C-alpha cells in the first residue's frame, strides 16, 4: 500500500517536519513492514510559463518544430527561447517550463542546448515527462486542468509534485490498512496523534433513496453456506461531464499511490477506494437495462470484462446483472458493455459488501487479480458502503459537474453483528510474557476501536470494531495488545528446553549423512518438488514405463503440475542453471521427500472435517490413508571435472566411480554396508548402472545418465547420478551409531584371485568370501577384474585384497590363510570359483 503524505495529513496530525522515514518508522512500530519511498523524481527550477508566440519551422527530416518565446517571469529570466516539437498549444497558453538545472524523472537533467539551429533555454513539459501518467500526446496545458496561475509560479507545488508516498506491506489479515483511513488510524496508534475518521459522517448526510431503481440479491444456492452479497448501495449522479480534467492534486495522489489516472469519473472511484478501502464501481446508467440483480452465474455463462476478454463463468462466480444478462464479475472487474466512457452522462454508483471467499475464488479461477478483489477478499468494513457511495457522488458533483439524484436509488443491507470475545484478565500477560496492567490492556483494545466491558471481575467482554474481521478470539486480541503497547516490551529471553530433549535418532542420522556429503565436497541444493509426468516416468521407474503420479489441482506452474517421484529431475535443473552461468564443475546433492503413490489407489478424496471440532480416530485414519507415501530420498549428481586442468596436471573428469565413492560415504555415515550389482534404469547408460542393496533389499541406484537425457537437460559431457531411499537405508541401520573399537594388534594382509564366470557379479563373489572367512576378516576390496590371456573364454579373474585382524592377539600367517581358504571354499560352492594359478 502506497500512502501519499499530503493525503495522510488530512486524516491524522503528522508533524510538519516529519520525513517519510519518520512515518515509516512509526508504522513499523505497529507491525507493518517497510517497503520503499516513492516520489516524482524531479527537482526545480520548474515554473509556470506563458507562450508569448512561436514560429513553425519545417526541418529537412520532415519534422516541423516550433521556436517559442515563453515568459517564465522576471525572477526566472523573463522571456526565454525554447524549441518544442509538440503542436497542441497556442499563443497565450500557460504551460509548465523546466528551466536549465532542473531534473526530470529518469533522471533527465535539463540544460540549455543548441538544437535545430537555436539554443533551447529550457523545455516545455508534457504530463508524462513530469511523471503524471503515461499519456504523451502533447504539452500539458494548465487551462485544461482548470488552472490559471501567475507566470513564474512554482509548478512543482502547484501540481503536487513535491509530495512523496511511503509504501508498506499489508498482510492478508489486515485488509483495513489497504486504505488511507486504515493507515492514518494505525499512525495514530503508533504516535498518539489525533485521528479524523473520513468514514465518520452524520447519518442525515447519507440518507439513501430506496425507490426508483430496483436492486436485488438472489443467492438461492449459497456456496459453503455463505451468501454472496450482504450489502448493496446504488446512487445516481446525473448530467456529469466526463471530459472535465481530473484535479492536479488528485492526479498526483493517484500516481503516487500506484494508480494510473484514466479520466475524472474512474479517477474518482479509484480515489475513494484508496481513501476508504471500499472498492467502488461506476456504470453508465443509460446502458443499463432495468434494475440490478446480484446472483450466481450459470455454468458456461459468458461475460466480456473491462480488459476485453470473454470469460466462461462457473456456478461459484458472483455476478452483477441487469435484464440483458451479466454486466460484471462482482468484486473483481466490471463488464465492457456498461463501462463509463467519454459519452457517459448519467452514472450509477455501486458500493457493496461481497463474500471474501467467493471473491477470492473468482479472482483466482479467472487469474484476474484486481485492486477491488484484493480488498474484498481481505474483508471490507460493512459500515462504510453508504459513506463511500455518497463520497463518490459528492466528488462527481464537485469535479465532474454532476447533480446528485436524491429521489432515485436503491439499497439492500443486513444488520451488522460482531460477535463478542471473552478475554480472561490473566490471559494476555500469560501469553505475551509481559506484566501489563489492566488499564494498558483495555486502553490498547479501545484505541483500536474495541468496546470493552468487565464481566464478573475475572474477564472482559470485547466487541471488535466492524473494520477488523481478523479479531475473532482471545489470541488475536492478545496480539493486538502486544502490537499497540510495543513489541520492544517483550523480553528476548530464550526458553529453557526440558532436559533429555534434542534431535530424534532419525534426525541425527539424516544430519550425519548430509554433513558427511558436505565434508566430502558436495554442495547441498534445494529444488522445487514439481515436475512433469514424463520426468516422473523416466526417473521414477526402472523401465521408463508410465507410473502413477499425484497431479496438483492448482499448480504454481502449469507445465509442471505433478509431484516428483525422484530427486534427479530437480538436480538436473540445478546443474543446468549453474552450467548456463559458467559453473561447469559440479558436485551436488539434495535430500528431500518424494511422493510415490501406489498403483490403483485414489488419493485426496476424503472430505475435510469441519473446523473447530477435533476429528475422531476413524476420521484421522481415513485422512492419513488419503495421503500417498512420501519417503525421504537423497541424491547426488556430478558433472564436469573433479580436478581442473593446471600446470603439470591434466583435467580429470567426474565419472561413475566418484558417485560410487559418494554412495560409500553415505553408507559409512548411515552405519550400513551397501552392495552394488549391475542393473538397468531407463535414464541411465546400459552397462554403467548399478543397483544398490542393503541386506538384499534394494535401496537405490547409481550410474551414468544417458547422453540423450543429459542433452535434453542442456548439460554437456558426462553426468553421473545416484539416488537412495534414505528412510529405507536408515531403517536397516538400526541403532548402530557407535564407532567400532579399533584393535591394537597388527593387520595380516593377503590377496586372492578367483576365476569365475564372466556373468557372475563381483559383489556376489565378495559376499561369499566375507561369509566364508568369518570374523577375522576385517575388509575385502576388489582390486582387479581381468579378462584375457591365461583366463578361459567366458570367464574372468577377480582379485581381492583381504585384511585380517584379531581383537585379542597377533594373527599368524597360517590363521590368515585358513580364513582365506574358508572364504574361497564358499565362493567355489556358490559360483564354481577357482584360485587362479
Automatic annotation (TrEMBL):
GO molecular function: ATP binding; magnesium ion binding; phenylalanine-tRNA ligase activity; tRNA binding
One Pfam family hit: tRNA_bind
Binding-site list for Mg(2+): 470, 479-480
Subcellular location: Cytoplasm
Domain of life: Bacteria
Keyword annotations from UniProtKB, A to Z: Aminoacyl-tRNA synthetase, ATP-binding, Cytoplasm, Ligase, Magnesium, Metal-binding, Nucleotide-binding, Protein biosynthesis, RNA-binding, tRNA-binding
Stored SMART domains: B3_4, B5, FDX-ACB
EC number: 6.1.1.20
Domain FDX-ACB, chain residue ranges per copy: 743-836
Annotated PROSITE patterns: B5, FDX_ACB, TRBD
Cofactor (UniProt): Mg(2+)
GO cellular component term of the entry, any: phenylalanine-tRNA ligase complex
Cofactor binding comment, as recorded: Binds 2 magnesium ions per tetramer.
Residue ranges of domain TRNA-binding in the record: 40-156
Primary site of residence: cytoplasm
GO BP annotations listed: phenylalanyl-tRNA aminoacylation
Subunit architecture: Tetramer of two alpha and two beta subunits.
Alphabetical list of PANTHER family matching this protein: PHENYLALANINE--TRNA LIGASE BETA SUBUNIT, PHENYLALANYL-TRNA SYNTHETASE BETA CHAIN AND LEUCINE-RICH REPEAT-CONTAINING PROTEIN 47
Entries under NCBIfam families matching the protein: pheT_bact (TIGR00472)
Annotated protein name in UniProt: Phenylalanine--tRNA ligase beta subunit
Organism: Microbacterium lushaniae
Gene from which the chain derives: pheT
Amino acid at each position: 500500500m502506497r500512502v501519499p503524505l499530503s493525503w495522510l495529513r488530512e486524516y491524522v496530525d503528522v508533524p510538519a517536519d516529519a520525513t517519510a522515514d519518520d512515518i515509516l518508522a512509526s508504522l513499523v512500530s505497529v507491525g507493518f513492514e517497510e517497503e520503499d519511498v516513492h516520489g516524482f523524481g524531479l527537482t526545480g527550477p520548474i515554473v509556470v510559463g506563458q507562450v508569448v508566440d512561436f514560429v513553425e519551422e519545417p526541418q529537412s527530416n520532415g519534422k516541423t518544430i516550433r521556436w517559442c518565446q515563453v515568459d517564465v517571469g522576471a525572477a526566472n529570466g523573463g522571456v526565454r527561447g525554447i524549441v518544442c516539437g509538440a503542436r497542441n498549444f497556442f499563443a497565450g497558453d500557460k504551460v509548465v517550463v523546466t528551466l536549465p538545472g532542473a531534473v526530470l524523472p529518469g533522471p533527465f537533467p535539463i540544460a540549455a542546448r543548441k538544437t535545430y539551429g537555436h539554443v533551447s533555454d529550457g523545455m516545455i513539459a508534457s504530463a508524462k515527462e513530469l511523471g503524471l501518467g503515461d499519456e504523451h500526446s502533447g504539452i500539458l496545458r494548465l487551462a485544461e486542468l482548470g488552472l490559471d496561475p501567475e507566470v513564474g509560479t512554482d509548478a512543482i507545488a502547484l501540481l503536487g509534485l513535491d509530495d512523496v508516498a511511503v509504501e508498506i506491506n499489508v498482510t492478508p489479515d489486515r485488509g483495513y490498512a489497504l486504505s488511507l483511513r486504515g493507515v492514518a488510524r494505525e499512525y495514530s496508534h503508533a504516535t498518539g496523534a489525533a485521528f479524523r475518521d473520513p468514514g465518520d459522517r452524520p447519518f442525515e448526510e447519507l440518507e439513501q433513496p430506496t425507490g426508483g431503481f430496483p436492486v436485488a440479491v438472489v443467492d438461492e444456492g449459497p456456496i459453503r453456506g455463505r451468501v454472496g452479497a450482504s450489502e448493496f448501495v446504488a446512487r445516481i449522479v446525473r448530467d456529469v461531464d466526463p471530459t472535465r480534467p481530473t484535479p492536479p492534486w488528485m492526479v498526483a495522489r493517484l500516481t503516487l499511490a500506484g494508480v494510473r489516472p484514466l479520466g475524472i469519473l474512474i479517477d474518482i472511484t479509484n480515489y475513494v477506494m484508496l481513501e476508504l478501502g471500499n472498492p467502488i464501481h461506476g456504470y453508465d446508467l443509460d446502458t443499463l437495462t432495468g434494475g440490478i440483480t446480484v446472483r450466481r452465474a450459470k455454468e458456461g455463462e459468458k461475460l466480456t470484462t473491462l480488459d476485453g476478454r470473454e470469460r466462461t463463468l462457473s456456478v461459484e462466480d458472483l455476478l452483477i446483472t441487469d435484464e440483458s444478462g451479466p454486466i460484471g464479475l462482482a468484486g473483481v472487474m466490471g463488464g465492457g458493455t456498461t463501462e463509463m466512457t467519454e459519452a457517459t452522462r448519467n452514472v450509477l454508483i455501486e458500493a457493496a459488501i461481497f463474500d471474501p471467499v467467493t471473491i477470492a475464488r473468482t479472482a483466482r479461477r479467472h487469474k484476474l487479480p484486481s485492486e477491488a478483489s484484493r480488498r474484498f477478499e481481505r474483508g471490507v468494513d460493512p459500515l462504510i458502503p453508504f459513506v463511500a457511495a455518497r463520497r463518490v457522488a459528492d466528488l462527481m458533483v464537485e469535479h465532474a459537474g454532476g447533480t446528485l439524484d436524491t429521489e432515485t436509488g436503491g439499497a439492500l443491507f443486513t444488520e451488522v453483528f460482531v460477535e463478542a470475545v471473552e478475554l480472561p484478565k490473566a490471559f494476555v500477560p500469560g501469553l505475551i510474557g509481559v506484566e501489563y496492567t489492566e488499564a494498558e490492556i483495555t486502553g490498547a483494545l479501545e484505541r483500536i476501536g474495541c468496546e470493552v466491558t468487565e464481566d464478573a471481575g475475572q474477564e472482559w467482554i470485547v466487541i471488535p470494531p466492524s473494520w477488523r474481521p481478523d479479531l475473532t478470539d482471545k489470541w488475536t486480541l492478545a496480539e493486538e495488545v502486544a502490537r499497540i503497547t510495543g513489541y520492544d516490551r517483550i523480553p528476548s529471553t530464550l526458553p529453557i528446553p526440558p532436559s533429555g530433549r534434542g534431535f530424534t535418532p532419525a534426525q541425527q542420522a539424516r544430519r550425519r549423512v548430509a554433513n558427511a556429503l558436505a565434508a566430502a565436497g558436495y554442495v547441498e541444493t534445494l529444488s522445487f518438488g514439481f515436475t512433469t509426468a514424463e520426468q516422473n516416468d523416466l526417473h521414477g521407474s526402472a523401465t521408463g514405463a508410465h507410473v502413477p503420479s499425484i497431479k496438483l489441482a492448482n499448480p504454481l506452474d502449469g507445465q509442471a503440475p505433478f509431484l516428483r517421484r525422484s530427486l534427479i529431475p530437480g538436480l538436473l535443473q540445478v546443474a543446468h542453471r549453474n552450467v548456463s552461468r559458467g559453473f561447469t564443475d559440479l558436485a551436488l546433492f539434495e535430500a528431500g521427500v518424494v511422493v510415490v503413490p501406489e498403483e490403483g489407489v485414489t488419493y485426496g478424496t476424503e472430505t475435510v472435517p469441519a473446523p473447530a471440532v477435533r476429528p475422531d480416530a476413524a476420521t484421522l485414519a481415513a485422512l492419513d490413508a488419503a495421503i500417498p507415501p512420501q519417503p525421504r530420498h537423497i541424491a547426488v549428481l556430478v558433472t564436469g571435472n573433479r580436478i581442473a586442468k593446471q600446470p603439470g596436471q591434466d583435467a580429470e573428469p567426474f565419472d561413475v566411480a566418484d558417485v560410487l565413492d559418494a554412495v560409500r560415504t553415505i553408507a559409512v555415515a548411515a552405519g550400513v554396508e551397501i552392495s552394488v550389482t549391475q542393473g538397468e534404469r531407463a535414464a541411465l547408460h546400459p552397462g554403467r548402472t548399478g543397483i544398490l542393496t542393503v541386506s538384499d533389499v534394494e535401496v537405490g541406484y547409481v550410474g551414468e545418465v544417458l547422453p540423450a537425457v543429459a542433452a535434453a537437460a542442456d548439460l554437456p559431457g558426462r553426468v553421473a547420478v545416484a539416488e537412495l531411499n534414505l528412510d529405507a537405508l536408515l531403517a536397516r541401520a538400526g541403532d548402530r551409531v557407535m564407532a567400532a573399537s579399533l584393535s591394537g594388534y597388527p593387520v595380516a594382509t593377503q590377496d586372492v584371485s578367483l576365476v569365475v564366470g564372466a556373468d557372475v557379479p563381483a559383489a556376489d563373489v565378495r559376499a561369499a568370501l566375507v561369509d566364508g572367512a568369518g570374523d577375522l576378516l576385517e575388509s575385502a576390496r576388489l582390486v582387479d577384474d581381468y579378462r584375457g590371456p591365461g583366463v578361459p573364454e567366458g570367464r574372468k579373474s577377480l582379485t581381492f585384497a583381504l585384511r585380517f585382524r584379531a581383537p585379542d592377539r597377533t594373527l599368524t600367517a597360517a590363521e590368515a590363510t585358513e580364513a582365506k581358504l574358508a572364504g574361497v571354499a564358499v565362493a567355489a560352492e556358490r559360483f564354481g570359483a577357482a584360485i587362479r594359478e
